[in-house]
Amino acid sequence: MTPTSPPGRVSIVIPCFNDGAYVGEAVESALAQTQPAVEIIVVDDGSTDATTRTVLEALQSDAVQVHRQGNRGLSAARNAGIALATGDYVLPLDSDDRISPDYVQLATAVLDARPRVGIVGGGIEFFGLTTGRARPTYDGIASMLFENRLYACSVTRRADWEAVGGYPEHVRFAEDWIYWLRILGLGRDVHILDETVWFYRQRPGQMTRDMGWRTATTAIVNAMRDQPDLYAAHMDVVTEYVDLKLSTLDTFRHRFGRLNDFASWAQTSLRRWRR
């Protein structure tokens, strides 16, 4: 009987900034994994809340490593945790979210068996302010150029993180999107699990909830600046996207012009009525 190699070791990295009310739940879900080859690293990104600092001190143990640093932002906290990681694979988990007990086992099985896969995600369940379920879809790298179709809590290879220079620390929004594009630029595939593996807390003030059109456009520009060769290689997709936006803008201008005419008429009529 041919011996089987042990599954790849997974490092779960949990950045935390003043999230003492929730981080314990995130760590609990990481400790509850059915696959024992798990390393848990919590990065305290300069928390100023006394309760959070107390909670993190209590979490420090043989099973949970707590790393402290000055406040540098989410990407830098993730990179710091991954730099300390010893696992073959990396699972970034936000401090107010949770993962299913079998997530590590399911993701590892895919990554061990399929060397070309660089990103593994799965179904999502929302809880808190809003509830519901969703499952990300991936239709090839072209579908990712102008829309982030993957979610933050996806598993990647540590070697790929090192190869692409980690998460971008110079951007404030959609840093995970740029990270995915960097990995896809290596020629990696994506696998989406059928199972629900990520429990995504919905609460007021989240960046993703507050992202308007201007922020979304800035995120696209940042992605294009970070990966110019990738976008140049798919110029047909870029051209189609720009043409669509220009058409939408022309339609808006046409309608807005009519609104201007109506506003001018209304103001003239009001002045006449007042006289």
From TrEMBL:
<dbReference type="InterPro" id="IPR001173">
    <property type="entry name" value="Glyco_trans_2-like"/>
</dbReference>
<dbReference type="InterPro" id="IPR029044">
    <property type="entry name" value="Nucleotide-diphossugar_trans"/>
</dbReference>
<feature type="domain" description="Glycosyltransferase 2-like">
    <location>
        <begin position="11"/>
        <end position="136"/>
    </location>
</feature>
<protein>
    <submittedName>
        <fullName>Glycosyltransferase family 2 protein</fullName>
    </submittedName>
</protein>
<dbReference type="InterPro" id="IPR050834">
    <property type="entry name" value="Glycosyltransf_2"/>
</dbReference>
<dbReference type="Pfam" id="PF00535">
    <property type="entry name" value="Glycos_transf_2"/>
</dbReference>
